[in-house]
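Continuing from the previous page of notes. For each protein in this section, the sequence appears first, followed by its structure tokens. Read the first protein now.
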Amino acid sequence: MMEKEAKIYVAGHRGMVGSAIVRELRRQGYENIVTRTHSQLDLCCQSSVEQFFRDERPDYVFLAAAKVGGIEANRTAPADFMWQNMMLEMNVIHSAWQNGCKKLEFLGSSCIYPRMAPQPMHEDCLLTGALESTNEAYALAKISGLRYCQYLNRQYGTNYISVMPTNLYGPCDNYHPTHSHVLPAMIRRFHEAKQSGAPSVTCWGDGSALREFLFVDDLANLCVFLMNHYDGIETVNAGTGKELTIRQLAEIVARVVGYEGEILWDSSKPNGTPRKLLDVSRAKALGWSYSTELEDGIAIAYHDFLSNPIRAER
């Protein structure tokens, strides 16, 4: 268990996942939380990260910092995605180990699993097949971070755990028109169509791809739960165990936003992985399950979009 007075570093606290973890920690009574903005600490700079850990010596670390983006961003800038994610995660994990961090939690992504993995995807299917090409660089970086944590545990007896979330959404998401993930991109697109009175909205692909979505505050709850109750070397999947088609997702988002026009599909654009559902039996066996249903969570996310004009406009 993390002591209430323990010093806890949340890397990436301004992002969707990191900010949710900070909210959850404070909700549970943890107040000694250390954060740094990118301008204060560049996690890709090894010497800066080493100095930070020497100075602060956090007891616990949640590594939620990452360069993330949707299909198009990953396709057009794979070198950037691989380099930045590899550098920041290796710097943080290595410096945590060097400075006696009691426990670290690494946040990965379900894209680490093979493109055609058996569904639902169990943690053991890692590295059993080819990755989805559209986000291979990001997946390789995340796999490396996960494996480095496991190698440190085996070689040096550290207690570093890894969590692999499914597709996430919620407050503090990125609503960029071309560099966001599918759900926030839909929120923005349907909202703008509603505002302009557009008769139709065109979505990428044919809508057949199957996806699972987890509300980010549910993930944060799991992250703190695992930090307090899980010491295993194996990865833990984070999801709902439920899936729907992208076409169904679009219909839900349109309903929440209040858009009543036609939804069209551009099949010349990629669908991505045909199906991506996580096996969440390990998390359930530990005593955890999600609490936010998809439509309720999308309503919260849409309210966040509307109440944060900077994110809405960028």
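Done with the first. The second protein uses the same format. Note its length before scrolling.
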Amino acid sequence: MTTDLADLSAFVAVVRTGGFREAARTSGASASSVSQAVRRLEARLGVRLLNRTTRSVAPTEAGARLFERLVPALAEVETAIDVVNAFRDRPAGTLRLNVPGSVARLVLPAIVPPFLKAFPDIRLEVTVEESFVDVLAAGCDAGIRYDERLEQDMIAVPIGPRVQRFATAASPAYLAAHGRPAHPRDLLEHACLRGRFASGATPAWEFERDGEVVRVDPVGPLTVRLGAAVDLAIDAAVADLGIILLFEEWLRPHFASGALEPVLEPWWQSFSGPFLYYPGRRLVPAPLRAFIDFIKTSEP
């Protein structure tokens, strides 16, 4: 039985994105051509691979089994084809990264433009996701995360600033009306703007000074999902609604403008910077190798 590799790739894209339109958008094809590819594949195999409704597309049991086997297999095919890159003057292809919102906002802007200028034949696709993911299953070449426990076969490379801090801040009007906390436990008497992970967990606020670590779980009028909605929490802090805890770099422009003031700065906790991670059990694609070499040579 001969099966078109493009049809297999179209099926994987539909399952990965959850729909034909989304798969078409990510693959640069039309939704009708993606749908036709999946129908051809189902006809060849003689089994339904997708359950289609007006609202959703989900794999059948057979489709789920096929998807699990195809993802690593197609990744190996891409790696095999990428060997040809060694015969080019410049690396080419697509590099897919999975990163959290903080990295997309604070780390990549200083790296991506000069990298793409240095390697004009490489296309970069960035997916923003807060949870730790299997980069291969997610269709990515590498991920970037903070202090995660990586699997043994993952390789981690430092990227971006090596030391960062969490900062707390509030507007001058809020502090004038409610007073300035002198100790992290004072935050329990203040309105605080919180963040929640996609898992539903709301992390406690952690502070450190002279070896003393203090964790508090304050409450407030607004909780946002960490990532895309963080700017809403910043806007709420600027609008005098409470105290916010966030990456210092994210709040620095508001410190400079005077819209926010630092709070409890002697207690701000430092943490190590992010790492680029990728599987060590496969050959490194040329675009990823070029990116790794670039961040290594451009690190201060």
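What the second structure shows: DSSP finds ten helices and 15 strands in the chain. The CA atoms of residues 79 and 284 lie 8 Å apart. We return to this in next week's lecture.
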